[in-house]
């Protein structure tokens, strides 16, 4: 875990140093996740509601175009069971995600962003009591792939004071489950996350 954070932080710092200090902006961001998985072996499972939080560096390349690497925690996964007559059960998949985004300002603070992302799985569990202190169900965490590749894209609006709001979609490209640790059995499932957030650029 510590090694992943160090590597991700080094990526942010190395990109930031290629530009003059007064051109680069640093920031913090956070928000709500509506996460699920998609694939041939899953029939639209209910979304797990969680959150994301992290930081970023925005490096302007032109007046309208920037490069923005980020590091953030993201609660992902899906709901196995969620109704009023039974306990909620969540499949919790938590990641440290590191996207590198191309960011384009269309007009008056309105921007679009898109780019590749690599995620590092830091937690995987089945929780029958996600709102309480206990409720974990035995699960072979080795069955979850450690690395997750994806593409993210979104839209946002940034105010002159640095405050911004955005909506983003994380489209996973890698299999969530490891066939090797499932006895060679392939499960087609990829992360799908809709994110709504806000932040501040310094």
Automatic annotation (TrEMBL):
Tell me the ranges covered by the Outer membrane protein beta-barrel domain, including all copies: 19-177
Q: Which Pfam families match?
A: OMP_b-brl_2 (PF13568)
| Organism expressing this protein natively | Dokdonia donghaensis DSW-1
- Signal peptide residues are 1-20
User: Keyword set for this entry?
Assistant: Signal
Name the chain's protein.
Outer membrane protein beta-barrel domain-containing protein
SUPFAM superfamilies reported for this sequence = OMPA-like (SSF56925)
Q: Where are the transmembrane segments?
A: none
